Each structure stands twice: as structure tokens, then as C-alpha cells.
Amino acid sequence: RDPLWSRGLGDVYKRQPVVRSCPASFFDVSLMANARQCQQFDDSLPASLVYFTKHAPKEVIAFYQNAYPQFVRKPAVNQRTMLAATDDSVRIVVSPDNVGTQVDVLIISKP
Question: How many CA atoms, within 13 angstroms, populate the side-chain half-sphere of residue 5?
Fold first, then answer.
């Protein structure tokens, strides 16, 4: 028997992301054209998808602010910037990565 199950951590296996080729959008939220290493954590809401891009964080933030002017930029915390829909249905978290940027797309409810 796996020691994780005996410690009550078996659910970790159920929550592993599915790595897929990157779609153009996720629940109607666009991804940058050069998105790579997409990991989708759920098909039903709430759902999240994480991807990487070679663009700098400021370029990613500008992309989302231009595409979704209704998203509100929150103050950065630990170099992570969050953009959120005014109704909080969508959150985008932009974090610097060694070779670009990690982008977390969180869909709380249908935008």
C-alpha cells in the first residue's frame, strides 16, 4: 500500500494536472499565442489552467489588460500580479519565471 494513502494524502493523485497542448482559449479567456506547457487542473468549474510564455510579466499583463479591459489589476504580492474580473468570475495570476512568465488562469464561474 502506498504510504501517501496511509497518511490521508491519496487525493493528491486525483488532483494531478493534465498536461496538454495549449488551446487558443480556456473557458473563453484567451491564452498568449506562444503559450506552452499547459496544465489543466479541471474540466468543470471552478477550473484552472497554468501555462508558460517567453514574454516578460509586463507584456503578459498588457496583453490581458488590452484584451479584457474589465479586468482589474491588483497590487503585486511577492512579484505576482493578479488581474480579476469585476464580478470575480475570472482571475489571472502573472508570475515571473526564470525564462519568461508563468500564467495561472482561474475560472471561478462562467464569465
Answer: 3
